[in-house]
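Apologies for my clumsy wording, but are you able to produce some protein sequence, whichever is easiest, and the tokens describing how it folds?
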Amino acid sequence: MRAEAFVTGPKIEIRKLDEATCEFYLTGTDVSIANALRRVILAEVPTIAIELVEIETNTTVLNDEFLSHRLGLIPLVSVDVHNMKTIYEAGEDEEVQDVVMSLDIVCTTEDTLNVTSNDLILDPSYPRVAPIGYHDRDARGILIVKMRKGQELKLRAIARKGIGKDHAKWNPVATAVFQHLAEIKIDNAMLSSLTDEQRDALCDADPKGTFKHNRIAQTIEVEDPELYQFDGEVLEKANELGVPGAIDIIQREDAFLFKIESTGARPVADIVTSAFEVLQHKLVTLENGLEHLLTQNV
């Protein structure tokens, strides 16, 4: 690893950003920081989810535990999460903020009734805490249960702030992955001895299509280095064709591509920002702890 890569410190370059997805490059750091960031995004960025379900009447085909589990996994819009406290954050004299939703439905027709997240009655004290797509007229909602004539479901659902480390229902993302970037060098002088068919075979050896054969220039070029998955297939093919070393591929240890997709509970930019804040707080806590230990040992 090149030491000069870390001289200027970590840098972020946004490649794609919208409400639900974010792709960015993280450079100038090592894999430990990249993986720490990924784990914080998955496990320690808070959201709001249904934690307790009080069922008064349930004559549907699903038992109480099954319904409670399905309700807990419905993503809730969590823009107010910063104004709430978890049961671990609240002091002895503080109350944990409960967002109380309710559901009261009786099927009175012969047709099957689909009960969805859009049928939940929101807490008037927290009108912005709602299932994703709740206010979208075109959204069908997330299916909770199907009911037939005469069946009834009445319950209270209590939502609270939490993090994915406690339960997956508080996970703010559907996807949070990163990949190493590849540094690819091609010696086309060595490849000049190959026929067009051999160059095609060399490019086809990579299953992701990282390489392309430029028949006009009689060279092999990199189509997209981000496609390369470090499977080594193209290197084995080069050895087989008698041109070992013609393609040199290095896995960079200081550059990563992150791809993040939100569940809809929080905007993805907010999730990434919060993750950096959590990670920074952890580092400050560690630094203060080490300084305290050193002071005691002096």
